[in-house]
Specification:
The protein is an alpha/beta fold. Helix content is 47%, strand content 16%. It has a single domain, classed as Phosphoenolpyruvate-binding domains (TIM Barrel, Alpha-Beta Barrel). β2, α3 and β3 form a beta-alpha-beta unit. The radius of gyration is 18 Å and the shape is globular.
């Protein structure tokens, strides 16, 4: 079952954020059974040149490639799709007007105004029939990130914007906006995340969030969140390395 099929069937999908510039790490992530990856242009060092090779690796490994674009950069929303990204995660969306602008930048006619070039990688460098390319591209997954007081204040309007596939709650930036930076388990953060979940679920919308532990994953899955972005590649590597060295020291 594909990533989109799982979401449509109300199943949970799992995948890590990634800052790597090495396609081998992407392939490895797919080989162990994750559903997707989020290649991060907001906080990571990845360039567009790196990105297209990371996307190629995702395709080889059967991973659904999602790219988080830099905040406020509407041009990049189309650019990463041109090189083959299957999903776009747009951070720091604060109101319905910004959400509508994201949709326009992400979709071709009739739902948007994305710039069209039929010779890009996503169009098989012009060998894909243009109608098929347009249809395929408009089926990419559009995710917007809700992560601040402004988004909370304007939540009802944001949730009414059509053609957004997933509403993603960013717990860390939300915690900062609420005055408890980094305290993602603080009651005020949990309370506001749950408000978002309740309002979105009442509209039948799909939700995602970031978690750093299996316990947090289970908590938010039980709350009804389907897209679980689990940790970050370098954090996973660091934690595994700590566990290995601690075990080795215990045996010496």
């Amino acid at each position: 079952m594909t990533f989109k099929d799982k979401l449509a069937a109300k199943q949970v999908v799992f995948g890590p954020f990634m800052h790597t510039t090495d396609p081998a790490f992407v392939e490895s992530t797919g080989n162990v059974g994750f559903d997707f990856i989020v290649l991060d242009l907001e906080h990571g060092p990845v360039s567009l040149e790196h990105l297209q090779n990371l996307i190629r690796a995702a395709e080889i490994a059967g991973l659904y490639s999602i790219v988080r674009t830099p905040p406020g950069n509407l041009h990049m929303i189309g650019a990463v799709q041109d090189i083959g990204a299957r999903g776009i995660l747009v951070p720091q969306v604060k109101d319905a007007n910004e959400a509508k602008a994201v949709v326009k930048a992400a979709r071709f006619f009739p739902n948007g105004e994305r710039g069209l070039n039929g010779a890009v990688r996503a169009a098989n460098y012009s060998s894909l029939d243009s109608r098929e390319y347009l249809k395929k591209s408009n089926e990419n997954t559009l995710i917007i990130q809700l992560e601040g007081k402004e988004a909370l204040k304007n939540l009802d309007g944001i949730l009414q914007v059509p053609d957004i596939d997933v509403f993603f709650i960013g717990p860390y930036d939300l915690s900062q906006s609420l005055g408890v930076p980094g305290e993602i388990h603080h009651p005020i953060v949990i309370e506001n995340m749950q408000k978002i979940v309740e309002k979105a679920k009442a509209r039948g919308l799909t939700l995602g969030t970031y978690v750093g532990s299996p316990e947090d994953a289970r908590f938010w899955m039980d709350a009804g969140i389907q897209l679980i972005a689990y940790s970050l590649d370098i954090v996973i590597f660091t934690e595994a390395s700590k566990n290995i060295i601690n075990q080795l020291k215990m045996n010496t």
